[in-house]
């Protein structure tokens, strides 16, 4: 009878190193998974000995940290540090799905506080590169091989860089983007509603009153990607959602995200994510920390 594997996410960083030998250097990732919360799910007054990042895929929840409560919804990224008392529960409505990544740097210093400056709520990132980086990290974490471990570390560092918000930079960026933010959100929503159609440049110019080149520059400044790149990643995200939550065939999924040629869709998906859609679905883990319990109001 095999021994029960330890819950690495609940251990002190130094206690995880033997089990994480595939990671040759920091950051060491002790957990990366997607969790689909059952009804009345939640926990409170928990502490971890490592850092944790959470990304909300769908639904709403309540995140409590050190005596403060925050409503979290689709696209939100929140963060807690070692030994910070925290809790999380799903709120009624849509099913609550989230990604959790637990990690540490062993005894190596890392300037997280320079990036987060005491923050726990790091912003809303649905439809941006961070969303897809979280999903890729989870999928690759379930796969063996040093190349997948390196990819996980690279994705985690990229996420940390994306969600970092030094106060001075955030203020400067807000001033420059304020006048166009409504029009850029129109573009984003327009693209998301038409994933089965090609990008209509004249229509986007008419919708915003901006030239295409200027629109590309402003969209990249606001969302960290171009409209075309956003369309591709939005299609990938929708394909993942359809594959996980519906019984549609591979061809039907491809058609709903704008690909009449199944092979072209498969080639694009693998190029952008490093795996097939089938491989992505089979690589997901849906178990949470062992130290959880149901919580009812």
Task: Please give a quick description of this structure.
The chain has 297 residues and is of the alpha+beta class. Helix content is 43%, strand content 20%. The strands form two sheets. A five-stranded antiparallel β-sheet has the order 1-8-3-6-9, with helices on one face. Strands 5-4-7-2-10 form a five-stranded antiparallel β-sheet, with no helix packed on it.
Biggest sheet features: 5 strands, antiparallel
Helix-strand topology string? HEEEEEEEEHEHHHHHHHHHHE
Task: Predict the CATH topology of the largest domain.
Answer: Jelly Rolls
Give the CATH superfamily of the largest domain. Regulatory protein AraC
Protein traits:
12 helices; 20% strand; 10 strands; Arc Repressor Mutant, subunit A; five-stranded antiparallel β-sheet; alpha+beta; disordered C terminus; 297 residues; Jelly Rolls
Describe the model.
This protein is an alpha+beta fold and 297 residues long. The protein has two domains: 8-164, Sandwich (Jelly Rolls); 171-274, Homeodomain-like (Arc Repressor Mutant, subunit A). Helices cover 43% and strands 20% of the residues. The chain has helices at 13-16, 112-116, 129-141, 146-163, 167-177, 181-193, 201-208, 212-223, 227-245, 250-256, 262-273, 277-283, and strands at residues 28-36, 41-46, 51-58, 60-65, 68-73, 76-80, 86-90, 97-104, 121-124, 293-294. The strands form two sheets. Strands 1-8-3-6-9 form a five-stranded antiparallel sheet, with helices on one face. A hairpin with a 2-residue loop joins strand 4 (60-65) and strand 5. Residues 185-283 form the HTH araC/xylS-type domain. It comes from Paenibacillus lycopersici. This is AraC family transcriptional regulator.
């Amino acid at each position: 009878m095999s021994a029960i594997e330890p819950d690495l996410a609940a251990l002190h960083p130094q206690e995880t190193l033997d089990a994480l030998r595939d990671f040759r250097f920091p950051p060491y990732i002790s957990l990366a998974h997607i969790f689909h919360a059952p009804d009345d799910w939640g926990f409170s007054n928990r502490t971890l000995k490592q850092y944790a990042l959470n990304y909300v895929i769908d639904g709403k929840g309540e995140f409590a940290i050190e005596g403060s409560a925050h409503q979290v919804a689709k696209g939100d990224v929140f963060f807690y540090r070692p030994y910070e008392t925290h809790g999380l529960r799903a709120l009624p409505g849509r099913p609550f799905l989230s990604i959790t990544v637990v990690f540490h740097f062993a005894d190596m210093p890392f300037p997280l506080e320079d990036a987060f400056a005491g923050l726990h709520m790091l912003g809303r990132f649905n439809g941006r590169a961070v969303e897809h980086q979280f999903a890729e990290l989870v999928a690759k974490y379930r796969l063996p091989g040093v190349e997948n471990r390196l990819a996980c570390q690279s994705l985690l560092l990229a996420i940390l860089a994306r969600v970092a918000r030094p106060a001075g930079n955030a203020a400067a960026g807000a001033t420059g983007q304020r006048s166009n933010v409504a029009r850029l959100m129109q573009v984003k929503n327009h693209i998301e509603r038409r994933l089965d159609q090609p990008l209509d440049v004249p229509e986007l110019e008419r919708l915003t009153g901006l030239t295409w080149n200027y629109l590309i520059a402003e969209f990249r400044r606001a969302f960290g990607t171009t409209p075309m790149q956003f369309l591709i990643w939005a299609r990938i995200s929708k394909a993942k959602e359809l594959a996980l939550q519906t019984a549609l065939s591979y061809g039907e999924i491809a058609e709903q995200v704008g690909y009449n040629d199944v092979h072209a869709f498969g080639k694009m998906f693998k190029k952008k994510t490093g795996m097939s859609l089938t491989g992505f679905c089979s690589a997901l883990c849906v178990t949470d920390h062992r130290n959880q319990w149901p919580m009812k109001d």
